[in-house]
Amino acid sequence: MKHPTANKTVRQKVIWHLLVLAGAVGVSALFSLILFQKIIHSGLLNMLVLTFLQLELFLWLGYLFFYGVKPDAPGVIKTTLIRFILFYLTVLAVAFMLYVSLYTYHFIRSGSDFSQYLPSLFSADLKFFFNAVIIGFGLGALFFFYSQWTDALKSMQKLREEKLIFQYETLKSQVNPHFLFNSLNTLSSLVRKDVDLSEEFILKLSSVYRYVLENQDKDLVPLKDELAFVNDFFALQKVRDQEKIELQVESNGQGSEMIVPVSLQMLVENALKHNVASRKEPLRITIHYEGLDKIVVRNNLQEKEQLGTSSGIGLKNLDERCRLILDREIEIVKTQDEFVVKLPLNP
Question: Is the sign of the CA dihedral 272, 276, 282, 286 positive or negative?
Fold first, then answer.
């Protein structure tokens, strides 16, 4: 079962390209009226194609130059001004290359004397092109910059809200009385039976709490730290459940990957929370890489009977955080036998 946000993203892209095409039609019609006093003329198709390509390039370059701009970052005004100037000059250069390419194509097709190429190029049409492009792209660049800046502010606000939800849910799940009661109860029995193991248990328990408190405000953490945290968390569960649960971590990454903090632990905890585990039919959880930019958490499906349906707020929140921080969604696949979640990585 494919994650529904993937289909939503495809639809959004299609709608976006259709809007760009509609904008190209409108701009071409306007320029046709200004230049030829009519909309339909022999060069309309070429004008439409050129305008559409320019708009697509314009938007792609804008995304390239302004993506990741954070309005609250140090020196953001100077950095943004430099990006804006480079963006504008790049757009002008690309537009000029497109114009010259199209002009050259028609010049060759016309069979004109090549000695007239440069004089013909530097004619009134080129002057008009520069005037239109400088003014039009200047206004367009300002509008695009404003829209990107506004989107960045909205994304920052959204991310702050998601972080607050994440911090609350994470701390609630880790410090809730049930978790704390089980941990202390396990520790109490260990102290009487195995002093060394009880000391190790205390160290791992403190490590779990320390990791959550130190990383809850961060956007990304090293994957190796998250895996160490998951191993400590699972070790606490393993002391109580022993052969009922298994965790296998296949570590074959590059070592430099970054991940949204407490994301793997949340998925492991979800598997433990929503599935039945026994010595005869243990719950098996596997963490492995998929390519260079995904890590996968999968478990055999042995769902508990629940009185009500799960709210799914944890997965929804995790998906939103991945989208805001990494610009990618999580993927969820549920079959009769298995539950799989694929998390994006920053390689």
Answer: negative
Query: Cβ contacts of residue 197 below 8 Å, gap of 6+?
Result: 190, 239
**Average pLDDT, stretch 105-110?**
76
Please state the domain extents for the chain: 8-158, 176-344
Q: State the pTM of this model.
A: 0.54
Which superfamily does 176-344 belong to?
A: Histidine kinase-like ATPase, C-terminal domain (3.30.565.10)
pLDDT per residue as tens digits for the range 150-172: 666 666 666 666 665 655 455 44
Q: If you count them, how many residues does the chain have?
A: 347
Count CB atoms within 10 A of the CB of residue 323.
Answer: 19
Q: Taking Cα atoms as reference points, which of 222, 190, 219 lies closest to residue 204? A: 190
Q: What is the pLDDT of residues 172-191, one digit of tens each?
A: 454 455 666 677 777 777 77
DSSP 157-224: HHHHHHHHHHHHHHHHHHHSHHHHHHHHHHHHHHHHH-HHHHHHHHHHHHHHHHHHHHHTT-S-EEHH
